């Protein structure tokens, strides 16, 4: 894993991005050089046109979800995503290279080369997703522990990280009743350092159920680290692997003395400017869709087009969120707040569609412009549910230390849910965002939001 602006990325993901960008730029440079152009012409040209197209393809591939690591994606789905990407990539390539000055030699052929490079990128994305190349450079991980915590680490690694290979479990001194397969325990009479070196371990995850009474061989762990083996605790493991803060395996000390949770006036000012710019641009593009949506709501059912409801915002201050009305006007006629659920019978036909493609969220852009919300942040909840969740879930109030968002890390990583258990899962992603938020992570979340809208993932 590589940490970029506080966010963890797989090395393979970074290599995929660099390969795609490099393929396009290389194709442009190679063609221009083959026509006898000088290097002084090539470099500025590649920077202005090749990199522009490469940047557009990065956005398209991110928005179509090609840089996400999904185990069960079918070849058919990958091909459909690639075709969707080509619908945008090929016209962009044509438009960008149509701007080449008219005195450039072989202008039309150069445009075809750029379009062919776009097609090659999409073909390679499909090939890389299903050829097994993602698992050829897997990290070898040793789990230190054999109890329930170690079993949880092993299960999450196998389920969510195709780049990880578990070499086995190493039992701690006071672990007599293993909860992992005995065949995978590799103590073999060797101490921890010897076992790690023997099995060419890249990383050790410390997942001991009991860490007192001499259970932690600190000298051996230090020797492993000095030998080039990464050593992480279980909380850091979940942060890196699942991009969440697992509240079952974290304590206040880890949160207080670890890095992250950085706030500041400069960061807030830059984020505010970005919020205004993005909200204005989206409103400028989406206003026809919003107008059609308003008409459809008015035609289908009586009642207001917009829906205003009090939610909890930054530092617990309430505000009125604005959304397109997607439920009947008598959705809570008894006055008792209810969780919205999947396939909720209170949702109208128009409401079901606009919720699926997230059009109902667009009026929240006005909340962003007035400063009550941000483009990216935790989802704002109603005071009734916030009070309940704070009393039942530790650290829930931490999510109110940043502005709520139109979209967020929990929204793009976890499907819609309406139970306390779902709230715990989403909180773990929200805590990750609050701890590690940056403009880079905000950009990734907005790109993944496009993929969520296009695929209907987590539709409500």
Provide a concise account of the structure shown:
The protein is 52% helix and 10% strand.
Q: How would you describe this structure in keywords?
A:
460 residues; Rossmann fold; 3 domains; 10% strand
Can you describe this structure?
The protein is α/β, with parallel strands linked by helices and 460 residues long. The protein folds into 3 domains: 133 residues, no CATH class; 105 residues, Rossmann fold (3-Layer(aba) Sandwich), CATH 3.40.50.720; 191 residues, no CATH class. The strands form 4 sheets. Strands 4-3-5-6 form a 4-stranded parallel sheet, with helices on both faces. A two-stranded antiparallel sheet has the order 1-2. A two-stranded antiparallel sheet has the order 7-8. The longest helix is centred in the middle third of the chain and has 36 residues. The two termini are 33 Å apart. One of its GO terms (cellular component) is membrane. InterPro entries: Bact_transf, EPS_sugar_tfrase, Sugar_tfrase_EpsB_2. Belongs to the bacterial sugar transferase family.
